[in-house]
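User: I'm curious what two different proteins look like when written out as structure tokens. Can you demonstrate?

Assistant: Sure. I'll show them one after the other, since each token string lines up with its own sequence. Here's the first protein:
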Amino acid sequence: MAAAIVDLDINEGDTFLMTLEGWENADNTIPIDWSADTFKGSFEFNGVNIPMVLTLYPSTGPIQNVLEATVACSLMVDLPSKGKYDIDQMLPSGECYRLIQGNVRVSQEVTK
């Protein structure tokens, strides 16, 4: 499975939030069962990793079948103008798949 490639434009100093939905079909009516899987993700700027907090909302809750990635605004300061990111999925069998990846362009914060 090839990772989705999505480049991001982010604002330095802002809280980062991204949500991903997983569906088995094009009609978005059959959710992918991610309940046994684990996920990891991070930004990388000049060799420094900033980890994402990944929260999985299962297909039975009020927010259905969503993987939410966040990074606190306190970690999103003093960033260089560009970097990269990815989010990986680990299956119970030990297989690992990259779900999404891309380049990051940072709009520098002026008012501090």
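Here's a second, unrelated protein for contrast:
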Amino acid sequence: MDWLLLFGLVSLLVIGAIASFYLHAFVTRTRKEFRATQPDLRITNMSAMKSGNVLTIFPELENVGGGVAYDCLLHIGGWEGNFAVKKVYPRGPRYQKHVASIVLGPEAPIRVKPIANGYIRLRYLDRWGQNYDCWYQVTQVGTGETTLYNVQIDLEHPQLNEPHPSFREMRKFLRTIPLYD
């Protein structure tokens, strides 16, 4: 009787270890598949042009992730306006970089008065409608010749707000919506 109980316990432990190994592999593969289909939109390059009192900033948007980014919106605090793109594709046949044009004239609030917390906000959605935000810090720099401020944008340290769905939601997303449009 004791040998039979010991054999049952050992069998249960072996079956449990094998099941946990396969469950872990399944969860890891699902998370990897989900991560591979998420967009990762970033400002990868920035150029500026100054003509008189008008400062024009040209941020270059690029999708460095694996999925398509939808309803992209770029907004800078202290600028009246925004730049919108319907779809930004990842590297592949439909890939292209998008260059926004932000014209900051002498009457733009970010150039006239000091702003405590300047930012550039990049908002976009993935194929499942989950919201992503990427914030870049903007610093105002005074110029000696005029009372207008120039702007410096920190592209190295963006603050990211990404969704963190549960494993069940990831699995549901991957099963309900086709991966390729």
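A detail about the second structure: The mean pLDDT is 87.
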